[in-house]
Structure formats: C-alpha cells, structure tokens
Automatic annotation (TrEMBL):
PANTHER family: 3-HYDROXYISOBUTYRATE DEHYDROGENASE-LIKE 1, MITOCHONDRIAL-RELATED, L-THREONATE DEHYDROGENASE
Domain 6-phosphogluconate dehydrogenase NADP-binding: 2-161
InterPro entries given in the database record: 3-OH-isobutyrate_DH-rel_CS, 6-PGluconate_DH-like_C_sf, 6PGD_dom2, 6PGDH_NADP-bd, HIBADH-like_NADP-bd, HIBADH-related, LtnD, NAD(P)-bd_dom_sf
Pfam families xrefs: NAD_binding_11 (PF14833), NAD_binding_2 (PF03446)
Top EC class, one word: oxidoreductase
Function: Catalyzes oxidation of L-threonate to 2-oxo-tetronate. Can use either NAD(+) or NADP(+) as cosubstrate, with a preference for NAD(+).
Reactions performed catalytically: L-threonate + NAD(+) = 2-dehydro-L-erythronate + NADH + H(+)
UniProt-recorded name of the protein: L-threonate dehydrogenase
Active site location: K171
Amino acid sequence: MKVTVIGLGAMGMGMALSALRGGHETTGFDIAEAARTRFTEAGGKTAASPAEAVAEAEVVFCVVVNAAQMESVLFGEGGVAAALRPGTVFAACPTVDPAVARATAARIEEAGALYLDAPISGGAVKAAEGKLTIMASGSAAAFEAAQPALGSVAETVFRLGDTAGPGSAMKMINQLLAGVHIAAAAEAMALAARSGLDLKQTYEVITKAAGNSWMFENRVPHIIEGDYSPRSAVEIFVKDLGIVLGAGHAERFPLPLSAAAHQLYLAAAGAGHGREDDSAVIKVYQKLSGISLPGDRA
C-alpha cells in the first residue's frame, strides 16, 4: 500500500519504519528536518509538506501529540483534508476527547475520505517492533481499506465500534489507569526512599509481588537510573488526564483518583519537569520531603 505517517516522533518514526519493513511504500512528514533525514536514511520517502505527503496515500497515520495539532494538520494552512483522495483512510492516533473524534470524522467523511478513530498504545519500543495495540473504531470500509497497513504497525487491533468515538473513549480509560499507576509508582518509591530502603531492591521485590503493575515495572527503572530522558513526557499526562477529567465533568461522574494524579503531573510541570519523562513526578515528592534520588548532583 501507499502509506503516509505524519509526525515522526518516537511513536510515529517506529510506525513509519514498521510500515516500510512491511513492504509498504511509505512517506513520512515531520516539521523537524532531522526526523525527515533519519527516515530518508532508513529508506523511506519524505515530503516537503503534509499535503504533499498525502497526495497519493491510501492510508494516512496521523501521529501528533494532541487535538490542536491534528486540527492544524487537517484544516490549518496547507492542511491535508483537501488533499485526501476519496477512499483514503485517515487514521487518527493521538489521544483526544471522543467528541473531537466524532466531529473530526464527520468533517473528513463529508469530503469523501474515510476516518478511523485509532489511538495507539505500547510505547516507542513496541512502535519500532510493529507490535502496537490499536484501539480502533470506524466504518467497515475504513477497517477493510486500512487492514494491510494496520497489520504492519500493530500486533493487536481492537475493533470497538462502527463509528468514531469508542476508540478514543477506550484510550481515555487506558490513560486514566496508566496515569494513576505511574503516580502511584512514584509515590511508593518516594516513600521507599524516605524509609531508607534500597530502591533497586524495592523494585526487585515489588515486581515479584502483588503490588506490581506494568507501569511500575516499566517506569521505576528510569528513577533507579536517574534518567528522565522523555520516553513519554509529564506534559502528556497533564493533557490526557485533563481529557479524562473533562469527560467526567461532562458526565457528572466523580474521578477522585484521576484528579489527584492530575494534580501531581501539574505540580511536576509547574516545577519545570514538564518535558522530562513522566516518572519525574517523583521529583514533586523530593521537593516536598527532601529525599535523595539516584542521579542527584552532589
């Protein structure tokens, strides 16, 4: 197939390379020249603009950060909506409010293209391996047209409905759990440090005990190594838990754990850690309690 990936960040680059490995004629676009160069050196094609990138595409994966960026890609100056051919599938991968997914789908489908509500999960490593999980919803025609491309970037594709919205709703639930679990992991490791426990040993014990979670197992090594290079940044959960809380507000549904975790990410971002790895939420506890953490400067 002719596949385009818009947004060659950690996730988008992995998806583009996976599509390329899957035998698809793959074009990438990113505003960063270094990302475009990296993809070209890997054997892919790049374009000078998003509209040029999608001109011949059968499937377009939009792998940007948020709804505002997707809106700009589609309907901003030089946006791709007008350049999509009839029948082209626009697979929207960012985490957005389900209402945004529904509204965007209506605009895309009115123009004759197909919309797939297709948020992703798995992280940069799974993206690079072509083993993402995609929580998708959309028409049967969109699923059928996109299937070969989906198969090259994802290990599991859940079909959650025949309209846009359920895919984004499911990703919202995933992000609620992920955000709360990271916050809980940070709190637990901060208390371990305050209690005088060895953090590496704490990790070894908890990952073999009932208190473990996927996020604990994945993020706590960043704390132990004192490495807060962003795999997924604090600001992502400021945004995503904001979406969760907005949905709860609209439904008059209480979300006390999500709200508490959101405040922790806001505090971390406000303290200057917004672009660091989301495990950097532990630094809020460090500022409050004075605990020592690996990587502290002497």
